[in-house]
Amino acid sequence: MEDYFTIDSVLGQDKAKKMLRRAMAADRLGHAYLFRGPAGVGKKTLARAFGNYLNCLNPSAEQDACSCCRSCHKLKSGNHPDLLLVEPEGASIKINQIRELKHALFFPPFEANYRIILISDVHTMRREAANSLLKILEEPPPGNQLILTGDEAGEILPTILSRCQIIPFTGLSRELVADKLRETGIDPDEAVSLAAIADGSLGRARMLVDSELLETRRAIIDQLLEMKKNRHASAITVFGLAEQAAALADRLPDLLDLLKLWFRDLIMLANNLPGEVVNRDLPGLADHNATGWTAGQLLDQLELFDKARRHLARNCNRALVCEDLFFGLL
What we know:
The chain has helices spanning 14-25, 43-54, 70-77, 95-104, 127-138, 158-161, 174-183, 188-198, 202-210, 213-230, 235-246, 252-270, 295-313, 318-329, and strands at residues 32-37, 83-86, 115-119, 144-151, 165-168. The chain has 14 helices and five strands. Helix 4 (95-104) links the parallel strand 2 (83-86) and strand 3 (115-119). The chain folds into two domains: 14-168, P-loop containing nucleotide triphosphate hydrolases (Rossmann fold, 3-Layer(aba) Sandwich), CATH 3.40.50; 211-329, Zinc Finger, Delta Prime, domain 3. The chain has a five-stranded parallel beta sheet, sandwiched between helices. It is of the alpha/beta class.
């Protein structure tokens, strides 16, 4: 069974829901929407729910899908012919995917009022693919509703932004994220820490639960503190840390973000702001003076992480980037 969502089932995002429902009530739908905001806050979920509503045969008075009609059942089973999904192949959306989409749009919808075209993660789209999509975005064939999703941190071509009606998304409250994590059986205290670390992204919090990033973060911090404490940073140890971090491949940026958050917490503690600490699951944070870094050095450390992220974005060697970072931190 495919994921099936109603608009009301989407967590938070009241402003986005209100904008869509206002357009539906006035029968003034935009020809192309871009749902844009932080990663993991419900953009794709609301896009699916919006599409489900548009093709529901018996929508509710509250402007939502009924979940029971023939169309809704087909959407639940993943067999609806008028739902097209375009997602990144590997790291990006490629031009051949857009060419296939354009060919499919030559024909009218098979049975529904709208053919729903959901293009996910458009910030990954290569320039040639984005340019190929522009004509469709500007004037899609009748009966086609395009819904794009993109992360606010990703670069999206201005030509795409100008051709879409943008629906803004925001981070979820920490309380809401923690509550949803507790519902899955996560320890209440750990749920609070995860919600703070994820900074309003339920998707990111769930990723952290399913991965070993938190454990890797803890192990690297322990080794950094040990080397800093004993003042004998071993090159072999640093190389080992770098190798361990680089092996995470696509998850390496997430690890660097977690480590940067820990240094940020040390700065908060140095400024007597314990309430701003997010890594509450890590021991020893309260004695920030014992780490051996001065307040000025801690600020410099944050720049080292930004530098590492820039190098990764330029496809520099991951191991070398990590070696440079860890030697710099010591």
